[in-house]
Amino acid sequence: xxxxxxxxxxxxxxxxxxxxxxxxxxxxxxxxxxxxxxxxxxxxxxxxxxxxxxxxxxxxxxxxxxxxxxxxxxxxxxxxxxxxxxxxxxxxxxxxxxxxxxxxxxxxxxxxxxxxxxxxxxx
Length: 123
Description:
Strand 7 and strand 8 form a beta hairpin. The model has no long low-confidence stretch (mean pLDDT 94). The chain is mostly beta strands.
């Protein structure tokens, strides 16, 4: 059974940093894509940073490139999102999600989701 447990959200001022963690279990990491998604009130959910844990490539949302860094600890199957230079627009509920990688790459829709962690950035 796939389980994803997020931690590390909180409230910071603009320009600050946060580290999100997602402890993943119940699947073979090399066959999955895993990443962070976010959803602000009244807005659609968006992929923020996604990786195929075999390490082929990492996707970043354009608005976070250069500020956020995704990493994966293979030994513990933990996904991290280091968020620097946070902006008010980064305020959202952040979710960790995972699913099997398909023949064409990481999926568009994800089957397994964590409970989410709130990130609030104030000006």
